[in-house]
User: Fold this.
Amino acid sequence: MTALSPLVDCFGRVHTSLRLSVTDRCNLRCFYCMPESTQFMPRDEILSYEEIVRFVRVSVRLGINKLRITGGEPLVRSDLPDLIGMLRKIPGIEDIALTTNGIRLSEFAQSLKDAGLQRVNISLDTLEAETFREISRRDGLERVLEGISTAQKVGFEKLRLNALAIRGVNERDIVPLGEFARQQDLELRFIEFMPLDAENNWEMNRVISGADIRETLEVAFCRLVPLELRDRSQPAVDYRFEDGRGRIGFINSVTEPFCSTCNRLRLTPEGQIRNCLFSRVEWDACALLRSGGSDQDLEHLIRDCVRSKKTGHGIDSDDFQKPARSMYQIGG
Assistant:
């Protein structure tokens, strides 16, 4: 397959990463992501694996080489290891990662690894069952911890915990999560609370900044030493504990936006392309995929989406408007 010119937007950002949301369904109801009661999309509106693979093949020709599978909760989608295997066979794909809430990870960890999955991010906002229930509006903490353990046992070397710290909810979990990651030799990333919840509970005063979390961890443990940036486009600023026990990253989407180096595109479960998590505009790939559109038509659509990308998400501006859709509908 002949490579085409790369995906470069009007601000010189080269796009090489694609986030694929395979479903809007989830077995939790985390308040920062979705409403407690919701109507999911009809299954026939969700892209098939064959449609996803075709879209990825076209994207790879344009320079995409990293994939992240998201949801909803991707592991509630039937036969997800089959999709991983199909994507793994596409020449040009260098990295495939998965973001999961961990509830079903113990069930699928081995088959995902066998299919070629390389990295796993597991959401873990607390180690307290009651707080877990408050955030997710479901039980399941023990299953998440079991999933983490199983993923370690089957040999995933690149495991990362994602934690969202929200003022008034789980500040007290910051230090225990840090200790857990240090004990388990896992990388931990804290993500700032973003305005993508379905029930409009986001307020700036509920955001615990990465800087504040870092200070809390240093008081509890030891100094955090900044690490050399591995990838200029990565969203996290990474540190290691000075005593050598563990790594911590901070994704400061609200207080320190990293839009100037963003290299990501997103494909929603029903086949809409988004050039930003906070975009209010989408490009309809599903319509082309299901109406006989050519690969060249898809290429033009993807390029148009990239060309239309703004300089930043604008959360810190007075005229910011949150997306009409919530995180679970867009893809984490």
